[in-house]
Amino acid sequence: MPPGPACAIGPASAWGKKTSVIDPSPTAAQHAFIALAPPDDAKKELAHALNPAYAAYPDLRWNRIEDWHITLAFLGELPVGAVQRLRSPLADLAAARPSLELALVGGGHFDERVLWSGIEGDLDRLHELAEAVRARVRDCGITFVTRPLRPHLTLARARRYDSASVPAAAACLDGFAGRPWQAERLHLVGSTVRGHSGPRRYRDIGAWPLVTDRNEMR
Q1: What is the pLDDT of residues 146-164, one digit of tens each?
Q2: Under which EC number(s) is this enzyme classified (predicted)?
């Protein structure tokens, strides 16, 4: 499906508190995803609970706290022009969707390789938002692999030789229950890898406010 008139380029904004301007060549490509991000106080609360795991398992590939996010749609590698087309339709979508009350809770792992913290709160509306986001991306003529949404926040990954540290680190979060917070912005994020196997670094391509007062919803 060719991109419609709504798939136009709109203003960019910042991932967290960092401001970045992405103006690459039209032939470039980048990895992109659409996500929600916890506020700083929620991240600090979880980071404090992780202190024993940080000390006990330093060889895990820990994600930077400022990069923590809840992925709604992972788009993979796309031409930069295709990514830029998503700005305006995602802004329109955010303006018609309410903010969500969420909380970070406990910990777990995928296949002893990926450490995560769980998500509780407005999960029905979180799933609805993810479905709406994915539909909007497809409406712009962009194809991507669709996976079932499993709400979580990725914290770390194991190195190839290590199958024990991630489950043990997850146990450090047993009983953790963060305070509820509002997810108030929808983020379109680009990611890059430093070096051949270095950690990913994230930069906002755009971020748009969700509706905090339902009387203002379009």
Answers
A1: 999 999 999 999 999 999 9
A2: 3.1.4.58
